[in-house]
Design goal:
Layout: E1 4-9, H1 15-25, E2 28-32, E3 36-41, H2 43-52, E4 58-66, H3 72-80, E5 93-101, H4 108-127, E6 132-133, E7 140-147, E8 150-156, H5 178-188, E9 196-198, H6 205-214, H7 236-248, E10 259-263, H8 266-278, E11 285-289, E12 303-306, H9 318-332, E13 337-342, H10 348-351, E14 357-363, E15 366-374
Parallel strand pairs: 5-6, 5-7, 9-10, 9-12, 10-11, 12-13
Antiparallel strand pairs: 1-3, 1-4, 2-3, 4-8, 7-8, 13-15, 14-15
Helix pairs in contact: 2-7, 3-4, 5-6
């Protein structure tokens, strides 16, 4: 089968990174949207996208678009016009999620209920049986995406969101989403020419995701299940071929490259080491118990990438804490390039350094900034971008 219309969803601000990933994989007609990237590919490419993409949350397969959906009766008829027996049997379970915006329906639960009725009625009429709803672990996930009167009916091919890689069994407070961690690693431009330090590494997610990106390790290499495996057109032999081909593309990191994480909390160090071991990266990433404010650069040209705490509930003096970040960078990391993400925009003024770049992101529903600081040696002037 060829020419499937597909959508990869992501976080706000990561669309260009995701589009680049898709183009590298070989997607056709790649176009960026809001928190989404649209593309085309065959069935095998849909498997490939699910298995490989680091900055996608879900891969959706388009079934049909309806352009004039104003009323409940139109919605029912539209859903009923799709032959659902092509996609699942009455013995399987399903759920319906409603996304997007429309002024014609103000209750998403009602929309989901009306669509459910259309599907169930169709099965009952054709098979004298009906599939059941399962909100937790359905066999089939249906997405109804509205844009005013337009309705896009899609199948979620991923199931559990793709950020659930399978390696992170240990977390601390406010862990960074794996997709967001991969996204900031991609946006920062870090590559294997410079050693990488996460000076407040928590559960090690940034280091793991950065390493996986550079080593071309498929994001879902540790994942056990995708919903597309429940579909009637699932091709197990093709999926195994794609997995093996993707694994063959994994590359080693250069000898001598340092990927280093610090955390002053011993329990965080333990959790990070376990997650790194789960990801089979303990040969490449080293975690040390250390207070960043008491450290010095181990290389003259370090690359720092981190997610410092920014929540008042974490029992830190925000103003003093971020001033110490700036002081440590100025005094002990001159010549380094630093990127950090914060969801508290006030913290940036306490660092005492002029950002070279600011990128707007969202950490969940919280507006955040990914900020770059270039720590030049001497008094070289720099422009704010």
């Amino acid at each position: 089968m060829s020419g499937l219309k597909l959508t990869a969803t992501t976080f706000y601000g990561l669309e260009t990174v995701l589009a680049s990933e898709l183009q590298t994989l070989g997607a056709r007609n790649v176009q960026t949207g809001n928190r989404a990237v649209y593309f085309e590919g065959d069935l095998g490419f849909m498997y490939k996208a699910n298995y490989n993409l680091h900055t996608a949350l879900r891969i959706l397969r388009q079934l049909k678009i309806f352009y004039q959906i104003y009323k409940a009766a139109q919605l029912y008829d539209a859903i009923a016009s799709i032959d659902w027996s092509r996609w699942f049997s009455p013995k399987q379970t399903f759920r319906i999620d409603v996304t997007g915006q429309t002024k014609f329906f103000n209750n998403t639960k009602y929309v989901a209920l009306k669509a459910k009725d259309a599907i169930v009625d169709q099965f009952r009429s054709a098979h004298n049986q009906r599939p059941d709803i399962d909100l937790k672990q359905p066999d089939i996930r249906i997405i109804l995406h509205f844009k005013n009167q337009h309705l896009n009916v899609l199948l979620d091919s991923s199931g559990e969101p793709l950020h659930k890689r399978g390696y992170r069994t240990q977390t601390g407070p406010a862990p960074l989403n794996e997709v967001l961690a991969a996204g900031i690693a991609g946006l920062s431009g870090w590559d294997v020419r410079r050693s990488l330090l996460d000076p407040m590494c928590g559960s090690g997610t940034i280091l793991i995701e950065a390493a996986m990106l550079q080593m071309h390790i498929p994001a879902a290499i540790n994942r056990q299940k995708f919903v597309f495996q429940n579909w009637p057109d699932y091709d197990e032999a093709l999926f195994e071929l794609i997995k093996n081909s993707s694994i063959d593309k994994i590359r080693e990191l250069p000898t001598g490259l340092k990927l280093l994480g610090y955390d002053k909390d011993s329990s965080a160090v333990k959790k990070a080491r376990q997650n790194i071991k789960n990801a089979n990266l303990d040969e490449f990433i080293r975690i040390e118990q250390a207070d960043f404010f008491k450290t010095k650069a181990v290389n003259p040209d370090m690359f720092l990438l981190f997610n410092p705490p920014y929540d008042e509930r974490l029992s830190i003096d925000i103003k003093d804490f971020y001033k110490k970040i700036g002081d440590t960078l100025k005094q002990h990391y001159t010549g380094s390039e630093t990127w950090l993400i914060t969801g508290n925009l006030q913290t940036l003024k306490y660092i005492g350094l002029r950002p070279s770049k600011k990128i707007k992101l969202y950490n969940g529903k919280l507006e955040a900034r990914l900020v770059q600081y270039l720590l030049y040696v001497g008094s070289r002037k720099r422009e704010t971008i």
